[in-house]
Specification:
Blueprint: E1 18-25, E2 33-34, E3 38-42, E4 48-63, E5 70-72, E6 80-87, E7 90-93, H1 99-107, E8 147-149, H2 155-158, E9 163-165, E10 172-178, E11 185-187, E12 201-202, E13 226-241, H3 245-257, E14 260-273, E15 277-280, E16 287-295, E17 306-307, E18 317-319, E19 327-329, E20 348-349, E21 369-374, E22 377-385, H4 386-394, H5 408-413, E23 417-421, E24 445-449, E25 461-475, E26 479-483
Parallel strand pairs: 12-17
Antiparallel strand pairs: 1-13, 2-13, 3-10, 4-8, 4-9, 4-13, 5-11, 6-7, 6-10, 14-25, 15-24, 16-23, 16-25, 17-20, 18-19, 21-22, 21-24, 25-26
């Protein structure tokens, strides 16, 4: 019977005594935060918690802009720069620096997996899709909307099993580090079009020969723009089992094996002002992937949002009445008049999260190559162009998440991210640690490109994220250790 397909079998499994509920968690230190501050919260103890339901709620406003410039929020998940999880004072991983950049880098290849209801996934120009009201000309102060972050990298988002018994470990503390104000965008107008006469900057045109999208020659964003989070709290689902069957099963497994193993993902971040090559080194038992995210040298400038190539940026007017007046600006896509591949709409990114190929932005079709080297071993075995790198990345990302539909021009100018897989395909689903073991070797990782020489101030920023599998070992008496 076990060899037959489930589609041919008639059976059902039953579990009695199961119950579930959602609880609200208050912060340990503060219920409001600005850039650079830390918010901490404790997870319920002596409970079975569903780690994937851990959610952060808050109100967010922007203030402090000047000179007619108004602040704009990014997707709210990008307001968190680092997530640190500790148990009884033992840090499972130090947390990924620039985790917001990592999330946006993944979204450059994946479809957006954030919440479209509470996550503020798109930049608001003139009319809010949260309230349905028009932008009032002030900063983006939608303080009536309760935003939510419910997708996490690291232990909370990847620990397996996701139903985690906190009675087995010391108290779990989550610390969230707020991002810099550089993640904000500013704009002087709500009018569709290019700065300084409109809402956004153009990603496909350049006023200077910088690497990456240059800021506009005028109306560069005010450094005074800041964001503030208020009413911060958390929720999580806890479950209960009526008898001690599960607890006895875990106790027997610990007694038999000596410990329980909980695998999870950890990321190590390296940043460099890149020219020709950048280096990194990691000692890990399972080095699974290497992610590369390229940004222009001016990525931290608070400037107008950047229009994704192909989407609407220039005016296109239609008559609002039979007499031909007044007219309404409906915009014209950058690819053909009617728009192709879904580009007959608006789409913006913050400059901080615009990933552009490391060539002069005035020459987007310049051929450049990239290659990963690990202790003399090359991946791929040849210097690969952008098109080849994208194909390699397609087969390197985790299975189960659909890829973003985009054009080659959009990939080069707005989503230039590469992923190199070093472990067995789909090994995460079987809890198999199959990546490269670099603990006994002095790993030297090198990212090499055929980037043409550029002045010091115009060299691109390269963020390298090394994805590793680590294991939380749980022993009797709430004793824990981490296998890196």
């Amino acid at each position: 019977m076990s060899t037959l397909s489930p589609e041919l079998l008639y059976f059902s499994s039953r579990m009695s005594g199961f119950s579930t509920n959602t609880f609200k968690l208050e912060t340990n230190n503060q219920s409001s935060a600005v850039a650079g501050q830390i918010v901490s919260v404790d997870l319920p103890s002596n409970s079975i918690v569903n780690l994937r339901t851990f959610s952060m709620f808050f109100n967010a406003v922007v203030s402090g802009t000047a000179g007619g410039e108004k602040g704009r929020l990014p997707p709210v998940k990008d307001l968190i720069e680092r997530v640190e999880v500790s148990m009884g004072g033992i840090v499972l991983s130090q947390g990924t620096n620039f985790t917001n950049v990592l999330c946006e880098a993944k979204k450059a290849l994946y479809k957006d997996y954030g919440s479209s209801v509470l996550g503020h996934p798109e930049y608001i120009r003139a009319k809010s899709y949260n309230t349905g009201g028009f932008f009032d000309g002030d900063n983006e102060n939608d303080d009536a909307t309760l935003f939510c972050v419910n997708e996490w990298e690291g232990f909370i988002g990847t620990a397996d099993p996701m139903l985690f018994d906190t009675s087995l470990v010391p108290n779990i503390k989550v610390r969230l580090y707020m991002a810099a104000n550089s993640v904000l965008s500013v704009s002087k107008s709500t009018t569709l079009g290019k700065q300084n006469n409109g809402f956004a900057d153009a990603s496909g045109t350049a006023t200077t020969d910088l690497v990456g999208p240059p800021p506009p020659a005028t109306a560069v964003g005010s450094p005074a723009a800041i964001y503030t989070l208020t009413n911060i709290h958390f929720t999580i689902e806890c479950i209960n089992l009526a008898d001690m069957t599960y607890e006895n099963l875990l106790a027997a497994q610990i007694q038999q094996q000596g410990e329980l193993e909980v695998p999870y993902k950890a990321y190590y971040t390296f940043t460099d002002t890149h020219q020709d090559s950048s280096k990194f080194s990691v000692a890990a038992s399972s080095m699974d992937r290497v992610w590369l995210a390229w940004r222009g040298a001016n990525y931290a400038v608070r400037s107008p949002p950047v229009t994704v190539p192909g989407y609407k940026i220039q005016g296109g007017f239609v008559a609002d009445a039979s007499a031909g007046s007044p007219t309404v600006d409906v915009g014209v896509p950058q690819y053909d008049i009617g728009g192709v591949l879904g580009t007959n709409e608006e789409k913006y990114k913050g400059r901080y999260f615009t990933f552009s190929q490391p060539v002069a932005h005035s020459s987007p079709n310049t051929r450049w190559t990239c290659q990963l080297q690990l202790n003399g071993a090359y991946m791929p075995q040849f210097p690969a162009q952008a098109e080849e790198l994208y194909q390699i990345s397609k087969h390197s990302v985790e299975a189960g998440r659909p890829l973003k539909e985009q054009t080659l021009n959009q990939y080069k100018l707005a989503n230039c991210v590469q992923c190199f897989r070093l472990n067995m395909p789909n090994s995460e689903f079987s809890r198999t640690l199959s990546g490269i073991d670099t603990r006994a070797t002095n790993l030297s990782g090198i990212i090499s490109t055929t980037l043409s020489a550029t002045p010091e101030g115009n060299r691109p920023n390269l963020s390298i994220f090394v994805e590793c599998s680590e294991v939380l070992n749980i022993a009797p008496g709430r004793s824990i250790s981490v296998t890196v």
